[in-house]
From TrEMBL, chains A, B:
GO terms for molecular function: DNA-binding transcription factor activity; transcription cis-regulatory region binding. This is Transcriptional regulator. It comes from the Bacteria. It comes from Belliella baltica (strain DSM 15883 / CIP 108006 / LMG 21964 / BA134). Keywords: DNA-binding, Transcription, Transcription regulation. PANTHER family: HTH-TYPE TRANSCRIPTIONAL REGULATOR GALS (PTHR30146:SF109), LACI-RELATED TRANSCRIPTIONAL REPRESSOR (PTHR30146). SMART domains: HTH_LACI. InterPro entries: HTH_LacI, Lambda_DNA-bd_dom_sf, Peripla_BP/Lac1_sug-bd_dom, Peripla_BP_I. The keyword DNA-binding applies. Residues 6-60 form the HTH lacI-type domain. Pfam families: LacI, Peripla_BP_1.
Length: 342, 342
């Protein structure tokens, strides 16, 4: 064994079963007999098998397929990234297969395994909100398997990333609210586990600080689920339980902003007269709601294109330099609509 | 050869190259030398190779992966179908890989090939708007490869389908406009190639006929692209070039309805006072636009669940009966919002 590690294939060969049977037996999936499960597990233990130690470097031929791991296809931003990925992939003769994790770590793990079984040549990854440990990626990278992370960048070394300038985007959005005369600006924040959430919080705080506006810790409110209903309820309770009413809302995404707008309107307040609102990501619907929502547009298509270009360069080893760790940061653009124009 | 047909594998073995090299050489993809391309093509001709004659039945083990071919992941309806598919698939220990065709036949063909290379156990398909010939599916079905079609049902025999009652949905939407007092109702129709478009047109016509309302051939306007911009422009030109102004619009999807609404408002007409509008598919944004859009909700999640249940039954041959051709029709629900309430 090249890597000194036992793989699923070794176990499968030894027991004369398929690799997927081994993989599934180890994970206690249904459809495998208890007898087989026991045999597989016993041998795995005896051989000191470690999951994911797929001997990737033993593969002979390319599949001309790249895998994409995304949290949610319904997310407008991700769907534009996918379009960018496909443009570059198809133009270069590669096919694209997608797996959606639904923000679940377990699905992320099994999706990666499925894709590796399927002999993809490389991976484009935006990991799930649940992912806090990145060993499953590190293991692959240690075996020189090409991975490029997009949008959500892991807090580990030696990765290749394409992301957007979330700090600047949040700074510009908050500064715009300040410029329009809003003074008590709250932030509906994203999940704590994501670096992009932290950067948007930092941008929000920096803009308030630079303009000498009041900051309160309880004005940064996490919306971990990210649904419209969640931010609707959170916003209602903030406005009901605060003596000092906020007059500005910067939300970490448009869905949260739309929920907040609904709550504000229901409380009899006017947007933008009483409360100014800015979202993030510029969803398809944002220009159509009432009033049209200001939002920070991310270059999703460009991000998909760039990430795929780099991945294909790594795969085809056209430029060895591209295998070097690096992070490409794309700029955002603030789209001012009626929801934040006093 | 079991099926009496030469496969890519035979050519690959003979020339001592990989199957993907053969596949790509036959398609004139980049990255393959002209010399190799010539060798492959010559041998393919000599052996009378026919594309897609993959000897599927020769496969030994299951991959516990199902493939899903969808036109567009950004389409809200399809994203809810995907969620339904994943619920059932994961609960049964199957993984799901997606390929997006972007409504292009060429991508549909290459996606299917990629998925078959990847040893999927079965396919869930909603084909592209460009697909008018279904030979690539028929060939697979003739080899007993499990396929279930959802939403878009092909006009060929012996298929297993899960669809919604588009006729009834369109009938109810049109009848609702009639009930509200609208009399000159136009229909923004979907692409002609799709059966669902035809059924929605039929439902619209039947409702007008049953209520003795005027019908004009040029009141059924095709919107083949399906973007908001397209229906915006079409609606503007209808209202500008018609002496007899329409007072109702039934659109075959919410994006088209939203574009029409924008055009109507820009012309100084009021929704719903002057023009009533109803869409189809109940996109996420529909309740948030101004005024909130009435729409025909399709049971996307349920459709995904049902299609996957049937596919897994076929794959696991639990019920041989399920391999029999059949079409399951799910009912729609009209959601009445402000855009159509006089």
């Amino acid at each position: 064994m090249k890597l000194g590690q036992v793989t699923i294939k070794d176990i499968a060969r030894e027991l004369n079963v398929s690799t997927s049977t081994v993989s599934r037996a180890l994970k206690d999936y249904p459809g495998i007999s208890d007898d087989t499960k026991k045999k597989v597990k016993d041998l795995a233990e005896k051989l000191n098998y470690r999951p994911n130690a797929v001997a990737l470097s033993l593969r002979k031929s390319k599949s001309f397929t790249i895998g994409v791991i995304i949290p949610e296809v319904v997310h407008f931003f991700f769907s534009t990234v996918i379009s960018g990925i496909e443009e570059v992939a198809y133009a270069n003769g590669y096919n694209v297969i997608l797996c959606q994790t639904n923000e679940k770590l377990q699905r992320e793990l099994s999706s990666i395994e499925t894709m590796l079984d399927n002999q993809i040549d490389g991976l484009l990854v935006s990991f799930s909100k649940e992912t806090e440990n990145f060993d499953h990626f590190t293991r692959l990278m240690n075996q020189n398997f090409p991975i490029v992370f997009f949008d959500r960048v892991p807090d580990i070394e030696n990765t290749v990333n394409v992301t957007v300038n979330d700090f600047n985007g949040a700074y510009e959005a908050t500064k715009h609210l300040v410029d329009q005369g809003y003074k008590k600006i709250i932030h509906l924040a994203g999940p704590k586990t994501l670096t992009i959430s932290k950067k948007r919080i930092d941008g929000y705080k920096a803009a308030l600080q630079d303009h000498h506006l009041k900051q309160k810790p309880d004005w940064i409110i996490p919306c971990p689920i990210g649904t419209q209903q969640e931010s609707y309820e959170i916003t209602k309770s903030i406005f009901k339980n605060n003596k000092e009413l906020p007059d500005g809302i910067f939300a970490s995404n448009d869905i949260a902003a739309a929920g907040a707008m609904m709550a504000v309107k229901e409380l009899g307040l006017k947007v933008p007269e009483d409360v100014g609102i800015v979202g993030f990501s510029n969803w398809q619907f944002s220009s159509m709601i009432d009033p049209p929502l200001s939002s920070v547009a991310q270059p999703g298509f460009e991000m998909g294109e760039k990430a795929t270009e780099i991945l294909l360069e790594i795969i085809e080893k056209k430029k060895e330099a591209n295998w070097e760790p690096k992070t490409i940061v794309l700029e955002t653009e603030l789209l001012v609509r009626k929801s934040s124009k006093k």
